[in-house]
Amino acid sequence: MGKPSLILAALAADAIPGVRFVSVQDLANYEPDSRTMVLTDDQGRQVLLKAPKTVVAATNIGTEVRALRVLRPVSLPFHISSLLGETSAKAQTKAYLFDYVAGNEVDLGSIKLDDPIITSIGSAIAKIHAIPTGLVSDAGLPEYAPAQSVRERVAEFDRAMDTGKIHRDLLERWQQALLDVNLFRFQPTVIHGNLTSQSLLSQGSEITGITDWAGLRVDDPALDLAAIYGEAAPEISAAITLAYEGNIRADRNLRQRANLYFELSLASYLLQSSETGDEDGIAEAENMLASLLNDLHDGVLPTLTPSGFAVSAPEVVTPISAASSFTAPVTVVTENLEIIDLSEPEKPKAEDELF
To answer: What CATH fold (topology level) applies to the domain 105-308?
Structure first.
């Protein structure tokens, strides 16, 4: 059998005929479910080859291709990739070739408070969230209203609770947040959906590229900040959020939801590890949840209590009152973790009747 790198180089030649590649660099840890490599042609141009190993990986790459096509006409202050070609039907292995986006992965855990890249990260995320939602929804990519977004979090909470491995104090903290209607009054925006330190690329103090666009959709903007809240120190997360808020009109409870989503991601990691029998993953998730619990008991976790009614351009959601008629979709999570649509104007409810 030939060397894997040579086989993939042959696939690249099949995907974009007429191009002569002179060097190959394997990226062993780039995407676990795909073989990935950087090829350089005789003109010095670099391309990224992805050969999915699983059906799920192939689906994700296909979704990313759609997302990159949606973003092609959008003016962004950083580089994104584009599809250059894919192997023909005669190829034994499916592979895709993309423009290679150069840059250094941002180490969110090592950023200092005076690092100017903080401003660039906040600005880059804001630019993504300012993309017109119609571009994404018209392309058939996922679009979630607030009620749907809450429903996913509630389902995640239920499944995590069923593991029996999460302390009741954490479960009560999350349940109280999920029950609070005011926390989830937000205007959905276009989000990256897979934003991590690996997808943020920099040169110097600027974000020069963002990769991994398979999660592009319309959803809660706080989801893109959740991973940053998990990887960066609290003061750095706050500084990035402040820079973000300086570039876009954000709702008042963005930070609370970002913290909630980060905390729930630890429960999700435990759940996934339990379902796959990954003992190392289970142990790691339990350790992270134990650390989170200690922070809760020490009183150092940020509050998840809403600071007020959310205000997001271009729509303002009307606060609930006995006399209000609901002109925008309003939902509430009940004590039984059911989502109720309160948008019917003929049946307004007093705020104290909702819980």
So the answer is: Aminoglycoside 3'-phosphotransferase; Chain: A, domain 2 (3.90.1200)
